[in-house]
Amino acid sequence: MAANDESIRCVLISGREEVFTAGNDLKDFLQAPLSAEGGGVMEFLNVLAAFPKPLGAAVSGVAVGIGVTLLFHCDFVVASVKATFRPHLSIWA
Question: What's the pTM?
Answer without folding.
Answer: 0.77
